[in-house]
Amino acid sequence: MKKIIILSLVVLVAGVSFFVKPKQKVIKKETFVADKTFEIKGLDYSYDVKEIKVKLNDKVKINFTNSGGFHDLKIDELGVDTGKIKVGESTLIEFVADKMGTFDYYCSVGQHRKNGMWGKIIVE
Question: What is the dihedral of CA 68, 72, 74, 80, to 10 degrees?
Answer without folding.
Answer: 120
